[in-house]
């Protein structure tokens, strides 16, 4: 029933989908983005209904994994639903519109700046303890961190349960697993390819990391079994990481999972034996470096644990009195104090910024939208970082041995941790969900897809090698939605429409479960057809394959996806110069291969000065960035889905020529993309030279002028460390204007503020503009509502009336002053009845 209903809903309008990208500009990474906003009003109505159906027929979500113990507590919260009055959103400020809203579609732009700021508020303090016994130091079994709001523990890798007392092992295995639904069993099929967490030596079963055996001088000696949980090993030992595994088992038989001669590891000069070994294994875990893995350095955690916790491979072990994913929360009685970034660890300073955690100054104000970042179980984010194979996976920044930060260029999905961090640090963040306008779900699904699920973790997010990595990610998102819905009232309050999810993997949100479609989906791959088959060149990502299991999944996997277009971009694209992947014909749906062939065969470079391929054109100097900046047109072709080419072109002042049928680009619904780009149908690829030659000079000039208006919205310079980098780049460019004369974009501005109108600001401006359209003003779905068509027509009218009435009420209330939330609650309650 629920299923059919979901399918029906699709034709009538989805919730918003945004698009996010990442790319590289002149040696620095760049993130970008786009949005598709669709009829939102309708979605609420529909959603409300389907949410009800879902709960009638029982919880449709059957994920495994984390069972928070206190689950379901919040399921029937109808009587707790209360809406706060919201001020009506501001009208666009004409001067902002004039100066800063070039190419904006609709009337979203210029409103945010015109809003009346609201009073700042002190963050809520936690007053619950996680006591099983009365020793507060033993809370959470010494390893976890107590959530002072919920009274349960956040547990690091190796532990689980409300009090972190349950052991959660991640064993090393010898090979790729064959069983997906069934419990973990080893050994598994050695014939399968893949990254395995093989280890014939000492396996740290918290995270499945391999070390030299303790029988050797540089082997790992674990803590004594009687020591309390979390005790560090007596000797850390040298790791034998993935790329360093022996090619022979202890039994002397050839093993299938390694290549290294055991002599190099265990011989007299071996890695595990000699003080100065002749052979060195890489130190791939975050936080460990040096030529012998002997140096401890800072590891990546989002917002660096607010300076009030120890970052353990991605998990924040907060100091006494502080708690939460990034240790932003305090328990009652703990005063706000600056963190270690102001004291013993100055290198943390650029990465710690938590306005939401501070006590506000007298008379301080804030601007909406207010965003609450969910404190999800670590299973869905921090644990992925702890399970990642190498430090350069899964993050947008990493520290080196000197605790200097760098960008892991080969990690394509940087917005996953990046946007999470931006929101944790945002002035728009609130620690109090009750006052939030929006709710962000920080799920590290791309990290799960690679490397975590690829390294044998299928039991956690049921999928199985019989399925694909993306199947596991779909299940992960379903679990998260189910968890959020059963632990907090906020999903049901607005049918999920004020929730925000991010999907950054290649084919974007194509595999997002139907239950999350009501939410705002930030993605990067604007594929618009409904339920498209996977277009990937990588088998493991074929989300459209069906997977059934007689016991665990008789209804099949695809039923979870519902029927939706993905509206989402693809990935690819390692840094400089696009990859053509001639050996992988499915990659980029063949567009890159086709153009490379024909341009070569017809001599496009000599005849038209059109270059298609990796590297510079023949005899043409300059790297990727310079070539782009010097070009009038730049091809924006697909990768394995999304590619950053479009945004790269925009940032270089080069007119993008989009060759991606049925795919929308960054900020599609917010900016007038045809005003600064061209589209060529895939069928016309062979005629690209003629098409481009026919573009009139005035059109070129107009599009270039428009690029100058929009480029900032295509780059995440509102992220402070990155904004500083770009600012420095522009300053440098101003000083050497002659050298860079060919570069048309970005224009070197003297008073450049990286946070103004960048991608992050654009997102906030847009979120603000649609507050009116959110359920904060919408009526809750009524049981037994009229048939859908009628309901739809009625809803449009009544909602408007109601919005007007509510604005009036708010005005009156403001005039009556001071009642604020209290009065609002009553009114909200009455409205419900
Ligand atoms: C509680 O703490 C007191 C000392 O503060 C100790 O004597 C007592 O044994 C503890 N009780 C339990 C159940 O741990
Ligand atoms: C350590 O190595 C020896 C062989 O030298 C092996 O028998 C033993 O099982 C290993 N111990 C562990 C903990 O791996
Ligand atoms: C880097 O940070 C770690 C963890 O805070 C610290 O132990 C180490 O001494 C620092 N190294 C340097 C070179 O500052
Ligand atoms: C490109 O050319 C090669 C060899 O000439 C051919 O094998 C391949 O199929 C062509 N690819 C496309 C997409 O036309």
Automatic annotation (TrEMBL):
Compositionally biased spans, kind Low complexity: 785-796
Domain of life: Eukaryota
Membrane topology: Single-pass type II membrane protein
Main location: Golgi
Keyword Ligase: no
Entry's Gene Ontology molecular function annotations: glycosyltransferase activity
UniProt keyword Transmembrane present: yes
Domain EGF-like, chain residue ranges per copy: 153-164
Ranges of compositional bias, category Basic and acidic residues: 823-833
Keyword set, alphabetical order: Golgi apparatus, Membrane, Transmembrane, Transmembrane helix
Protein name: EGF-like domain-containing protein
Natural source organism: Chlorella variabilis (Green alga)
